[in-house]
Design brief:
The structure holds two protein chains of two kinds.
Chain A (H helix, E strand, L loop, with lengths): L1 H10 L3 H23 L1 H15 L5 H5 L2 E2 L4 E2 L2 H32 L4 H14 L3 H15 L6 H25 L3 H9 L4 H9 L4 H17 L2 H4 L26 H10 L6 H30 L5
Antiparallel strand pairs in A: 1-2
Chain B lengths: L7 E10 L2 E11 L4 E5 L6 H8 L9 E9 L2 E2 L6 H7 E4 L10 H11 L5 H14 L3 H4 L12 H13 L5 E5 L7 H14 L4 E5 L3 H7 L2 E6 L2 E7 H4 L7 H7 L5
Parallel strand pairs in B: 3-8, 3-9, 6-7, 7-8
Antiparallel strand pairs in B: 1-2, 1-4, 4-5, 9-10
Helix pairs in contact in B: 3-4, 3-6, 4-6
The chains are: A mainly alpha, B alpha/beta.
């Protein structure tokens, strides 16, 4: 009887345990509601945009060219223009950024030089896009003599996206345990062999995440392309996939949205919203590709 | 008979991490026959000694190395193909690190980076190494599954198989039995006794009894200093000729 009583007391919930459980429930509830809260503006925003855009949102709107001084027709030249600038900027920023990130994390030893480079990268990531725009205007349009063109705009976007690509590459590489590298080095692998066979395959997901974020930024920013390559209107054939040369100026979705909402009077409201929806869809499509890639790689995660 | 390759001559080796001295003017001669056991309390520089043999010590930040190490008469500092040097030496560390690859690819890693790609050669190497490490029977049906999913003891044997895959002349084991159960430890010890006919084995261990069981020669390091190198029997006898050795071996300190 006595022993029974003793065990009962031993496992009975004390005040401390009640308090602990209460705290646990509260914390879980608060954190959980926060993750729901972030969904609300997202859902509200997209549904509002789609509802307002609905009357103009047709297949024709995407594939047609602007008509009657932008007041009707579609946005094909702007969509293709954005595709061009984003793709070209990625072609430059991804190899440079990833290689620099690999160097900084895998090869560079701690020194005043690497400290300055790291500091520069972090600071560059915080520079406002309009400053990048002015830099692009001076460096590419004027100094390099590229003129206002897709090239200048893409290079400006590349400069803008580089820092984050470098930082996220570094972080992704840093997450791969040092013990893996040690094991490879002890087996007689060179640094590069180690990076190629073990480090990169296990960090590619994180690197892709950084790149995705920068695709969205490159597609959405207006300022950097405004001075360097975006144009108010350009005549393009309907559905033409290769309407621009790299040395020409082009239309772009973000800039097009800016002009039709501020510079052109009498544009139907639904067209403004529809342009925004297409821009959003463009970014989502790019994201989707990268997310699919990433999950396929993640499924092969190995430790 | 030609002397077996893999003898090591360490001369006046001093290693510093920043201001901290890890090894203080060590000179040891490790013959190519038998098992060379290294004992000593924590922080005595045992691991540092192993790392300096295959020159991975150079990869640590802020390290300064003085003195020379000769392997088969060749100064390791002058060897230009450092990767070739590392392939001559198999390394096994306390905590097993299975690379995030399949069991097969783990063992085939070193031969592959050394340029061997023929499927037949690799199959042969993988089977031989896994057999030598007493792991073959447990994994032969699932060579394609992940090496990182094996149990701790199996992973440690996998790292031993990996260290043997490039047919090293020297095998260094650093407290291999920490993450391994006693039965597996015994099996690996049997493996080592078999392997010592073919290669020099350097065994760093915290278990003095393991050194006593396996070592032909035993070396005692304390706080970066070489205290004594001698026949294992002498070290563990009632009169090793050195009070510090006697105290450590008999558990007075450490």
């Amino acid at each position: 009887m006595d022993g029974n009583e003793h065990t009962k007391n031993l496992f009975a919930a004390t005040d401390l345990i009640h308090k602990k459980l209460r705290a646990q429930r509260t914390v879980k509830w608060i954190f959980g509601s926060m993750s729901v809260v972030i969904l609300i503006p997202l859902v509200a925003l997209t549904s509002y945009l789609i509802i307002r855009a609905w009357p103009s949102l047709t297949w024709d709107f995407i594939t047609d060219v602007p008509k009657q001084g932008m007041r009707s027709g579609g946005i094909w030249p702007a969509l293709i223009g954005t595709l061009y600038t984003v793709t070209f900027s990625l072609l430059v920023a991804v190899p440079v950024g990833v290689m620099a990130g690999i160097y900084l994390n895998e090869y560079a030893r701690e020194s005043w030089f690497t400290r300055i480079v790291n500091l520069a990268v972090v600071n560059l990531a915080g520079v406002p896009s309009i400053v990048h725009a002015l830099f692009g205007l001076g460096a590419f349009v004027v100094f390099a003599g590229l003129g206002k063109s897709i090239l200048s705009a893409s290079l400006t976007l590349a400069i803008m996206t580089l820092p984050v690509i470098i930082v996220s590459t570094k972080e992704a590489l840093f997450a791969v345990p040092v013990t893996f590298r040690m094991a490879c080095w002890n087996l007689g692998a060179s640094r590069w062999q180690t990076i190629r066979t073990i480090v990169l395959p296990n960090s590619i997901g994180g690197i892709l995440t950084g790149i995705i974020l920068q695709v969205c930024r490159a597609a959405g920013e207006t300022a950097p392309i405004m001075f360097t390559g975006a144009v108010f209107f350009k005549f393009v054939k309907r559905g033409d996939l290769f309407p621009y040369k790299p040395t020409e100026q082009c239309m772009a979705l973000s800039y097009h949205l800016h002009t039709i909402s501020t510079q052109v009077p009498g544009v139907p409201e639904s067209m403004l919203y529809a342009t925004a929806v297409v821009l959003l869809g463009f970014v989502l499509a790019f994201n989707a590709i990268a997310i699919v890639l990433r999950t396929r790689i993640r499924n092969r995660k190995k430790w | 008979m030609k002397p077996k390759a893999g003898n090591i001559e360490i001369k006046n080796l001093t290693i510093r991490y920043g201001n901290k001295i890890a090894l203080d003017d060590i000179s040891i001669s490790i013959p190519s026959t038998g098992i060379f056991a290294i004992i000593g309390p924590a922080n005595s520089g045992k691991t540092t000694l192993l790392k300096s043999i295959n020159r991975t010590i150079e990869l640590e930040p802020g390290v300064s190395v003085k003195g020379q190490i000769f392997i088969d008469g060749q100064n390791t500092k002058r060897i230009r193909d450092v990767y070739g040097l590392r392939r001559k030496i198999g390394m096994v560390f306390p905590l097993p690190v299975g690379l995030p690859l399949s069991i097969y690819d783990n063992v085939a890693y070193a031969p592959r980076i050394a340029g061997k790609h023929s499927k037949r050669d690799l199959d042969e190497i993988v089977e031989r190494s896994l057999r030598q490490a007493a792991l073959w029977d447990e994994v032969k049906d699932r060579l394609k599954s992940l090496g990182t999913m094996l149990s701790g003891g199996q992973q440690q044997r996998l790292t031993i198989a990996r260290a043997l895959s490039h047919e090293p002349e020297i095998l260094c084991l650093d407290e291999f039995s920490i993450a391994v159960d006693p039965v597996t430890t015994m099996r690996i010890e049997d493996v080592l006794i078999e392997l010592k006919k073919k290669m020099t084995i350097i065994l760093v261990t915290n278990l003095v009894q393991q050194a006593r069981r396996l070592g032909d020669l035993t070396c005692f390091l304390n706080i970066g200093k070489l205290v004594q190198v001698d026949e294992t029997e002498k070290i563990f006898s009632d009169d090793p000729g050195n009070q510090l050795t006697y105290d450590y071996v008999h558990g007075v300190f450490g």
